[in-house]
Amino acid sequence: MAAVIENGLFRVLRNRVGRAIQEFQLLEEGDRVLVALSGGKDSWTLLHVLDALRRRAPVRYELVAATIDPGFPGFDADAIAAHCTEAGFAFVCERTEMSEILRVKADPRKNPCALCARLRRGALYNLAERLGCTKIALGHHLDDVLETLLLNQFYGGTLGAMAPKLLSDDRRNTVIRPLVYVDEKQTASFARRNGFPLVACSCPATARPDGKRVRVKALVAALEREDRRIKRSLLRSLSNVQPRHLMDRRLWVD
């Protein structure tokens, strides 16, 4: 089995993921966890850290790495499968017709990422149910959570982000985000140092990224240069909600 480099960064990642698991009760005895493995830096980090924690966790759980093949030419699912085999992970690749659906259904005037995300999520939900998985672990990290928080406020008129643990709308699947305390820079460094095979989705739309998310990412980076506590403060606000000082009357208490 290929082992990850157990240095200071690895210990930080392990501690932060362990903290999230404990605080939000992300894992329970006997869980069978489908780890959504896109082949990017975040999902590789998630898979390897969850596996390291599994060996010493007080509860028993198992992992199944799962890749959704979107069908775009050039997507290298074989590289993902090869690494999983070498590392000893159970692996499933679900081949889909997402690329064709996007070609037919996507509005050419809009970024197709939102529709793609819905299709991918549906494929993961169905696969998890078929494999008897009790949880679906996604690789969203701290930066994803904060950017989503600001995007919702700036452009969506809602106050919400990405919950560490979420029961899906169909109430059949529980989604967990163990990287909620992990910075994107840390996953990038961990993946680079360990030589994980980084696989792009090969979607042609990546050439025109979501402009709103790009601007929000740049805003957070600029604020962080002025005050290194910015991201931690934003994250803390999500668990320090004061309904009395908001305008949603559904939250008011007489």
Please describe what this structure looks like.
This protein has about 250 residues and is α/β, with parallel strands linked by helices. The chain has a single domain, classed as 3-Layer(aba) Sandwich (Rossmann fold), CATH 3.40.50. Helices cover about 45% and strands about 10% of the residues. The protein contains 9 helices and 6 strands, in the order αβαβαβααβαββααα. Strands 3-2-1-4-6-5 form a 6-stranded mixed sheet, sandwiched between helices. Strand 5 and strand 6 form a beta hairpin.
**What is the radius of gyration?**
19 Å
- The number of helical runs is 9
Order of helices and strands: HEHEHEHHEHEEHHH
- Using the alpha-carbon principal axes, give the shape: globular
> Could you please say which CATH topology applies here?
Rossmann fold
Could you name the CATH homologous superfamily?
Answer: HUPs
Low-confidence segments, given as residue ranges, are: none
β-strand percent reads: 5-15%
Secondary structure category: alpha/beta
